[in-house]
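Task: sequence in, structure out. Protein: POTRA domain-containing protein.
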Amino acid sequence: MPRNDEVRFVSSSVKLPSFSPSLQLTERRKLPFKFHFNFNLQPANFVSQFLKTQPFLHNIIRKSLFQTGLKKSPLFCSASLALSDSKIGDDSGAVTLSKNVSGRSVAAEEERVLISEVFVKNKDGEDLERKDLEAEALNALKASRANSALTVREVQEDVHRIIASGYFMSCMPVAVDTRDGIRLIFQVEPNQEFQGLVCEGANVLPSKFVEDSFRDGYGTFSTFLLPIVAPSYAGKVVNIRRLDEVISSINGWYMERGLFGMVSGVEIMSGGIIKLQVSEAEVNNVNIRFLDKTGEPTAGKTRQETILRQLTTKKGQVYSMIQGKRDVDTVLAMGVMDDVSIIPQPAGDTGKVDLTMNVVERKSGGGISGGGGISSGITSGPLAGLIGSIAIYHKNLFGRNQKLNLSLERGQIDSIFRINYTDPWIEGDDKRTSRAIMIQNSRTPGTLVHGNQPNNNGLTIGRITAGVEYSRPFRPKWNGTAGFVFQRAGAHDERGNPIIRDFFGSPLTASGNTHDDMLLAKLETVYTGSGDPGSSMFVFNMDQGLPVSPDWLVFNRVNARARQGFRVGPACFLLCFSGGHVVGKFPPHEAFPIGGTNSVRGYEEGFVGSGRSYAVGSGEISFPVMGPVEGVVFADYGTDLGSGSTVPGDPAGARNKAGSGYGCGVGIRVDSPLGPLRLEYAFNDQRNGRFHFGIGLRN
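Result:
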């Protein structure tokens, strides 16, 4: 085939970061195209850009390598090929025509030239050492095939496809006239072989995560160091697309955890070292700003240090929006704020972030409230069990979130007057220890243990109580309480006169006096799950009487309660267990009563028995009916473990209580702000039925 001296191909020269579209014509001339991969965001710009991509600060926009600017870089306009019109130049017959790309006509671009052969070579025109890379380049070609007629645009698109495969840093198309026709050679320069990783600025990003991200594409690593990784595997060519996926996964790791962090710079350095620059926005400062209802700044009543100590977000930490949301919830839980929000802003050019917490305080920290409830100790009368209450309170004493409450509860028989002071977080303590001081004067029904007296003579237990308790969380979902409580308790008749024996002659006090004195050391451990019906709960408490005076009672009482729920389809299964034991000399009215709404349903309160020991188990199946209404089927069993006769005076035996029993029934529950409202009907093993009404889940 004769040489075609009237048609020449033209290759372009491109060098990052600038890009010129001009083309130069000369016979088989190749201009170098070198790709020095380098992508950087300055730290200050990183914070500004990151914040702009956070609508409402709750959605992190994943910015991959190409999404942040490389996709439109000259890398993807790496080479061009032009076919020019032929003109006779000098005496030798060589064509020396040059034409600017921007001035090309559409007809020139659409002119087709027959290609006899297509090859992929290295930048020097020699065979590639790695045949797998040659295969990758050939597979990327779409239009360029042997014995095909190509336009400039089609060849240019194939050049882009080779670069887009991710394995090559340059691609130069070269056309050579041979006696067999025009041979099209794509001269490529592969990326370097991966030899190691430099990762800078990643303070919270786990090294194992980075290793795992690179392992899929580049093999395994023996160690991860900051700033460098020493590989135990080498030989895989760096693939830009795979590198983009790795960067996307790293940015996704930050996004999933709500952290202000992303890959802000990537560079493939000499020797096959990949350098990742990670930018993490540390908290520079946290400020509190008080706002009024209109959003204007105002003076606050709460001390700023009282709010700041509630926050888990501290200066120097990488800011997390998830952690910030928890801080907002914690400040709202103080009970003195109507609205709380956190606004992050760039801290100048430092690459850090300043946090401003906007708080709107409630108009007054104090007030008067009223309410009502149900007492489980009243089983008869026209207003059986109903209690009314009134309270005067202040929720933010001295601006320290300390709380003072004076309350009075009054029922048909019940009465409780209580003064309670609570410091939710003792100043100077770093364990979130709270302190509660309580003084209380109460009168409650004695029917739980001693039953109704003949001729409807009422029996009440009066208690004067004072104590102090300290509580703090010691593990996630676990809370502990310790304290001391003094109590003076005695029995009274319906006129309020003290009595020491009931109608059956059973003693009502352990000391034989009109009242019993005791100083109790209290310990309690509480585990709570998420709070929904499928969560678990465990409570263990112990009271130990201290021998401060010879006449004061000394005994040990332990009690435990557990609840576990699990769902099977729409149904929820709930298992409950409680049990306890008393050792030592204790008042009869402190025995464990069995039977009632939160014990064995189908019985009145305390009518199964009362013992020094007890165990109660319950099983329930609830299912949705309509909206907030659920149906429930349940069964309960309780026993005093044969300990009823060991209670001083054997009040259960004097009243012919069985000591054990079971009940089963059905009910409905309605979800409410107060908790589940329970209306249940149960039969006991004596074939007697009874309605029960309660608020909240079983204890």
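The longest strand covers residues 460-475.
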